[in-house]
Design brief:
The protein is mostly helical. The protein is built from ten helices and four strands, in the order αααααββαααββαα.
Length: 218
């Protein structure tokens, strides 16, 4: 009986998704079905789930990390502290109230580009980047980025000179990473707020670069 109900819910989700033109993965459909069942049985409160998602999307989110990066771009002393002990530097900065332990910041340079992955599961610095993107948790990304990081960057539309080395950092439950991307040229005199608008989530994972200052909303 339970299996029959699951199939019915799954079919209903497929019909609903088709009507609205969305393209959910099989995993996303299963999560929706599971959430529906748990809600019907009274195990979870949909409002509480919505509040958790809203918290990480609007109150935490990648804009926290963007502010950290922008501060490091304009404040050399903060940057030094960030690279020495990211957890303490961010906690002392006043940018955000508190983050988890063991966050490490790694700096991109003209000769070195950093990328972050979690090969075992999907450990991710939620405190400063919010919810992880779906592709970060996917098996193809987790396996390919270690073997062919330059090819993965190409998939994201990033082309680096052959002279630029690439280092991949593997996150764990104990240690997580934040990439400090290169500051775009032509931003001298910009405020932290202006600079933060150039920092993307992908640039702090290493699969992207900071936005072009000539096209800050691109």
């Amino acid at each position: 009986m339970t299996h029959h109900n699951h199939d019915h819910d799954h079919a209903h989700e497929d019909e609903h998704d088709h009507e609205h033109g969305s393209h959910l993965s099989d995993v996303q459909r299963r999560v929706r079905a599971l959430e529906t069942i748990l809600t019907e049985k009274g195990y979870i409160d949909p409002a509480a789930v919505d509040q958790i998602v809203e918290h990480f999307e609007t109150r935490v989110g990648p804009h926290i990390g963007a502010r950290v990066v922008a501060r490091a771009w304009v404040d050399t002393q903060f940057k030094a502290r960030l690279l020495d002990d990211a957890t303490r530097a961010i906690a002392d900065s006043g940018i955000v109230g508190q983050i988890g332990d063991h966050l490490i910041a790694v700096e991109n340079t003209p000769t070195l580009h950093n990328m972050v992955v979690c090969t075992l599961c999907s450990c991710y610095p939620w405190d400063v980047l919010g919810l992880p993107p779906v592709w970060y948790k996917s098996a193809p990304y987790r396996s390919r980025v270690v073997m062919e990081p330059r090819g993965v960057l190409g998939d994201f539309g990033v082309s680096l000179p052959d002279s630029t080395g690439i280092r991949v950092w593997d996150s764990t439950a104990e240690t997580r990473y934040l990439v400090l991307p290169l500051r775009p040229a032509g931003t001298q005199g910009w405020t932290e707020e202006q600079l933060a608008a150039l920092v993307t989530r992908d640039s702090m994972i290493g699969t992207g670069l900071a936005r072009d200052p000539a096209r800050p909303c691109a």
